[in-house]
Structures are given as C-alpha cells and as structure tokens.
Amino acid sequence: MHDIRTIRENPEGFDAALARRGLAGQAVALAALDEARRRAATELQAALARRNDASKAIGAAKAQGRETDAAALLAEVAGLKERIPALEQAERAADAALAEALAGIPNLPAADVPDGADESGNVELASWGAPREGDFAEHPEFAGPLGLDFESAVAIAGARFAVLRGGVARLHRALGQFMLDRAVEDWGYTEVNAPLLVRDEAAYGTAQLPKFAEDLFRTTDGRWLIPTAEVSLTNLVREQILDGAVLPLRFTALSQCFRSEAGAAGRDTRGLIRQHQFEKVELVSITAPEASEAEHERMTRAAESVLEALELPYRRMLLCAGDMGFAARKTYDLEVWLPGQARYREISSCSNCGDFQARRMNARFRRTGGKPEFVHTLNGSALAVGRTLVAVLETYQQADGSVRVPAALQPYMQGVTALEPA
C-alpha cells in the first residue's frame, strides 16, 4: 500500500517509478480521489461540529426566552441529524474508493533495480558451481521406477499433482527437513507451524488480494488456501506496534502451498516444476527500515547456502522493474541448473517489500522514546522442495537409472546413498 501523502508531495516521482514497471501514471487520478475523500471528511466534520454547537445553543436560547431562535435551532439540528448519515456514507465511500485504487498499484522499484519490461531485463550478479552437461534426461523420463507417479495423481486429483512413493518420497521429506534445520540452526530463524487457511485480511495484508484472487484456492466458508507460508508468517505482526528492541524477527516454516496456476495454461505441464500443491521452506523477516537491505542480502545467502550444501550449481539474478512481484521493491531470484533441461530455472525468490505490506497490515514498531513507524517486511524461499527434488534427481542421475543421494542428505536418509529403480 502506498502513502497518499507521499504521492501528493511528489506526484511526478511516483508516476516515474510506475513507468519503470511499465504502468501508466496514477498520481492525478489518485489526487482526485484523495480530494474527494478530504472534501467528504470536511463536510462531515463541519456538519457534526454545527450539530454540537446548535444543540448547545438551544438551551441558552430557551434560558433567555428566545423561543423563536430555539425553534429554529431545533429545526436545524433535526435537519443535520437527517443529513449526517448520508455524509458518513459519502465519507466511507470516498475512503473505500481511494483504498481500492491504492490497493491495485504495485510497490515501487528500488533505485538500484534495473529497468526492463520482462525477464530479458534481469541481470546475473553471480554464479556458483559448474553446470553438468551431457546426455541427461528430464525427471519425468526416468524417475517413475524411483517412485514418482503422475498417473495415480491424475486419477485422484487431476493434472498438476504428483504422488511420491518409496525412495523419492523419502528424499522429498529429507530435503524439507534439511532446509528447515539449516534455517533454524545456521541462520537463526524461529520455526513456526502456522495455518494453511487464512482470512481475507491476511491475504490482503501480503497483497495476494484483491488483485490475485484467481491465483488462489478458496474454501466454501470464505477462507483462502495459502500460496506460500509468507502469508501466515508475515501476518504474525499485523495490527501490532512492536518494541524496536525485538527487531529483527525471523520466521521460517515448512508448509504445503496451493496455487491455482490460473495464468499458467500450457506451461510446465510435465513434471514437478509447476504444481497446484507443493511444499516450500519459507523465510520471513521483519526489520527496521534501515536494516532491510542488509537483511535482504542475509536472507538470500541463507537460500544460497542450501544449494551449495547440496552441490547444485546456481546463479543469482537481480530482477528488473518489469519482472518483479507485485509487493516487492527489490528481488533476487536464485536459478538452479537442471541438466535434463540444460537450463537454469527459478528455485527461490527473495524479496524486500519495504513498508508496502506493513501499511496494508498496519504493522509498526516503536524506537525508544519515538513515534510508531512502519516495519519493513522480507520474504524468500529456502527452498521450494519440489523444484529442489527435481534438481537433485536430474543432477545426480546415473546411467543405470539410479540417483545418488547428496552427502548432506544422507544423515536424513538413515545412510542411504542412492535411490535404486524398482
């Protein structure tokens, strides 16, 4: 959410930042809505003040024997009482119109975010590891005998689901536990087990609503299945004023995630890359404004350390203004090398949202002796478990159809060093 006062003070700068995202200017339209809101508020306050003054004057007029004046005042108060509900409704409508307009505008890109319209404008900042090249198969082609079953999933639930059995299921579980332990033990995140179903307010707070409702699954009682644990974890501080001394707060969760993939028809229909249901280890940080940039680097390194421990080659990409998510002001994507596809694919996205989500959640903190300020929120994947499973399967596949288990995962596999085809 944007601060309308900031937009009023620098409309040209606001529109220039939106233009970097490929959007038309909004400052003039927002100023008109804001003027209507302030005018409605002024009219309401004037009517309320006049009603109070006139009510007080009635007694004085009667005490002085000015019955004609008292009658006129009574008539005026009666008229104001009839008019005020309409003024209150007009103020609510004007407030709602401005809030709806602001809610549909994405976060503004940070100054060091590169310009660009789409992923072609993203910038590679660093890479790690040597990509394996050669005659590698994609995971759907060889992982069936290891326990990866798409046919049963289609029969049970339809497309974009998978059943994992035996060794693959165990390896998937090991990956999630390994990532969660790294986040807690190595990077100091607090483990959280949070709801998978959330209310409108929570999805609004992290900016999934109202713009991206079609990307979510909704229950018959009006709750939403989370697309990422970011929603549950970030909303832990909604409607709060935190003691500045407790910052930063760092939360992590291994959770199921649910996405309708409404805009992904025809994309990644094979395999585990794009599923309706998947697991992910999420990282969320709540910081003071001046600390969020350093926290962004720290969070991204936490995700990178998982890839390095698993010896999976990857690269860090700085997303351009046109390719960032709605709530982000700056995003690093980590892309892992998939030998079966002979290309890098996104496996983690780490974003600094500034105070954008905090304003929507009314999440603030107070420094010693200071006034409440909005926190900054950050979120990242460390990592998407299914995509990491794909990377492990394809990177460690052997000519005989087996898959070696990375050394870092073997303790989680009770010493199993390879998955053997049935």
**How many E strands?**
18
Average pLDDT score:
96
CATH architecture of the largest domain: 2-Layer Sandwich
**Beta-strand percentage range:** 15-25%
Low-confidence stretches: none
| Biggest sheet strand line-up | 1-11-12-13-16-10-9-4
* Rg over alpha carbons: 27 Å
Task: Return the structural class.
Answer: alpha+beta
Report the order of strands and helices. HHHHEHEHEHEEHEEHEEEHEEEHEEEHEE
Main sheet specs: 8 strands, mixed
Say which CATH homologous superfamily of the largest domain is assigned.
Answer: Bira Bifunctional Protein, Domain 2
What does this structure look like?
The chain is of the alpha+beta class and 422 residues long. The chain folds into two domains: 4-103, Helix Hairpins; 119-419, Bira Bifunctional Protein, Domain 2 (BirA Bifunctional Protein, domain 2, 2-Layer Sandwich). The protein is built from twelve helices and 18 strands. It has helices at 4-9, 11-20, 27-63, 67-103, 139-142, 150-157, 166-186, 200-205, 230-234, 292-309, 356-361, 385-395, and strands at residues 123-128, 148-149, 163-164, 190-191, 197-198, 217-218, 224-225, 241-243, 249-258, 277-287, 314-318, 330-338, 343-352, 364-366, 372-374, 376-384, 403-404, 418-419. The strands form five sheets. It has an eight-stranded mixed β-sheet. A three-stranded antiparallel β-sheet has the order 5-7-6. A hairpin with a 4-residue loop joins strand 12 and strand 13. Helix 7 packs across helix 12. The protein is elongated.
